[in-house]
Amino acid sequence: MKTQRKADIIVGCGVALFGVFILFASMFITGGAAHRLPPRTFPIVVGSLLLLCGIALAIKNWSLKGADLAIHWPDSEGIRTIAVTLVSLGFYIALMDPLGLPLATFFYLAFSIWYLKRSKWLMAIVISLIIAVISHYLFIRLLGLSFPAGFLFE
Amino acid sequence: MGFSFDYLIQGFVTALSWQNLFWALVGCFIGTLVGVLPGIGPVSGIAILLPLTTVLPPTSAIIMMAAIYYGAMYGGSTTAIVVNIPGEASSVPTAMDGYEMAKQGKAGPALAISAIGSFFAGTISVVALTLFAPMLAEFAVVFGPPEYFALMFMGLSLVISLSGRALLKGVISMALGLTAALIGQDPLTGAARLTFGTSTLNAGVDFISVIVGLFAISEVMINVEQRITAIDTMSISDWMPTWADIKQCGWTMVRGTGVGFFLGLLPGCAPSVTTFVAYDLEKRVSKHPERFGRGAIEGVCAPEAANNATSTAGFIPLFSFGLPTAPSMAVMLGGLMMYGLQPGPMLFQTSPQFVWAVIASMYIGNVMLLVLNLPLVGMWAKICKIPFYILGPIIVFCAMIGTYSIRFQAFDVWVMLLFGVIGYFMRKLGYPVAPMVLSSVLAQMLETSMGQALLISQGSPLIFFTRPISAIFMALAFVSIGRGIWSQVKAKAPEAVTDDAEY
Predict the structure, then answer these.
(1) Which of A52, A153, B111, B228 has the fewest CB atoms below 10 angstroms from its CB?
(2) A39 has a pLDDT exceeding 90
């Protein structure tokens, strides 16, 4: 998907397939009575819209001629940084319940700041520690929000 | 119920309570911070903080939310002027002359005139909001389900103006937002839809997760990809503009306010549009148009006045009709709904204390922002220097806190992550994000009002075309859709999107 045209054709087909999937899933929605809007109406409308627009986007770009636009994808270093950012966020979410908000926050921030700027490891630890402690006292103690406190603070 | 001084005074009494003053100040501070920090805009800022305000009473919470919104509009100019990074598309015209002024050692006067212009426009627009919103609400009080459906339908047809030249992509974005909103229980019958038998999906996808993912997470991904590290700033010494500067900008503020306010009333007319119009108008009426782009102080003042006027004008359709004209207003609408308040004509009748307190707080908030912005200009400029390797993870942390606190379920945060990835690809592939936000917020109201209207008409869709107000809205929606389709048919280039996603 290096150019806009190619990307639009591929995404258009994908959207159309997703529309078919929504239409198929809508068939299993039950309920509704006379003079009432059946619950499957909107999903059917949306599925049809996705199907039609996906096909239209693909066809329009298929038949397009002339200058095309390039898509600026990240280089390999950029892809790696994005992937690490997303995976670390995934770990943050997954560790939230078992470790609790303060500890999960400390690990996430310390790792992310260190990963984005390797030379600043001490700063990463200090900032993460401060924010982790603040998060515990502000959100759990002061505001009384139901975040998991974790084994350290329970 | 039209405009009443008694209600306004009552509103001031409520807004001036210590508690509400405190939350307005907190909102102004956070809002300015959100505006100043690159990588986080007003929409994601409000969306992240919205669930956290559940610990506050509704009036204090919405006062704080409104303060964050117009605070962010004030703060957005700082990065544009000091470091030439417009935090939002609406700050681009400010950067053109503001940064040039900063290079000439006049960053202080540029920041100060932007604060003064914003204060002037904000105050005049709140006066207009005070007078017009109740009048419009009085007109809209006759609205029933068919009129509401037609209004929401017209609201969705805004995707055409929000999509730029990418209509098909805009409609796809809207349909994806609707799909997310349809997951869960049907609002009228309670039947499970698109849940695939899982109990987690039964509770539905919260629109806050969608918005925070689309804006905050995807923004972090874009910044991480570009490996933004540190930003150099200029030193600021004299921050007060001269009397001649203020005099020079007198009529500029008036024109900027007029352009911003009246265009801001139109659905889909975002600050990113009105600021450019105001800048262009100023250049046209100037005796020395050649100074624009080279550090003209009017070039800073006009877009900033227009920006704040447009932001305030957006509250008029929101309070009077319950119609969000921009993603930021859609988030505000979600906030009102979260507190069990239904924006629209009945809001002035059922919750007058609330609505007038919020309006009164805007007068106070504008003064607070001026006080906060003028002397603290140097401090805000220094905050711009926070490097992204610290700021990025902190933005993700804030997004996590905001999303998790919606229902205290990890599921909502996974949804945020998913929509962050979707938002990243949408930006890369030129899909407008705004239609998805608008549709995910409007979906339930649209469906509920349609269901109720069809119940009244015993299943006949003609009800939407036989009632005059509803017929007008439907006609406007179809004209808007027809115009969009026509421009699509004529277009020969690949679909391109305008950069108005964040406002």
Answers:
(1) A153
(2) no
**How far is it, in rounded angstroms, from Cα A132 to Cα B267?**
42
Tokens matching residue B493 = 């280039």
A132 contacts in B (CB within 8 Å)?
none
Partner A contacted by B288 (CB < 8 A): no
Q: DSSP 3-state assignment of B185?
A: strand
Low-confidence ranges of chain B (pLDDT < 70): 1-3, 38-40, 83-89, 141, 158-165, 227-239, 266-270, 272, 384, 491-503
Q: B496–A69: do the CB atoms touch at under 8 Å?
A: yes
The residues, ordered by sequence, that sit 6+ positions from B6 with a Cβ below 8 Å of its Cβ are none
The reply to whether B492 touches chain A by the CB within 8 Å rule is: yes
Q: Which amino acid is at B191?
A: A
User: For the stretch B31-65, what's the b/e string if a residue is b when 16 or more beta carbons lie within 10 angstroms of its beta carbon?
Assistant: bbbbbbbbbbbbbbbbbbbbbbbeebebbbbbbbb
Tell me if B244 sits within 8 A of B453, measured CB to CB: no
What are the φ/ψ torsions at residue B441 (nearest 5 degrees)? -85, -40
How much is the ipTM here? 0.93
**pTM for the structure as a whole:** 0.80
C-alpha distance from A150 to closest chain B C-alpha (Å): 14
Question: Are B318 and B294 a contacting pair, CB within 8 Å?
Answer: no
The dihedral over CA atoms of A100, A102, A106, A107, expressed in degrees to the nearest 10, equals 0
Q: Please tell me if residue B188 touches chain A, with a CB cutoff of 8 Å.
A: yes
- pLDDT at site B460: 85
Predicted local distance difference test score (pLDDT) of residue B86: 64
CA B190 from chain centre, in angstroms, equals 32
Classified as helix, coil or strand, B494 is: coil
**Residue B288 in tokens:** 């020395």
Average pLDDT on A17-25 reads 95
| Domain range annotation of chain B | 5-490
DSSP codes joined into one string, B45-96: HHHHHGGGGGGS-HHHHHHHHHHHHHHHHHHHHHHHHHHS--SSGGGHHHHH
Report the C-alpha gap between B418 and B343 in whole angstroms: 30
- pLDDT tens per residue across span B14-45: 888 999 899 999 999 888 888 877 666 777 78
Cβ neighbours for B12, distance < 8 A, ≥ 6 positions apart: B360, B363
The beta-carbon neighbor of B459 closest among A35, A54, A145 is A35
pLDDT in tens, B210-237: 888 888 888 889 888 876 554 445 555 5
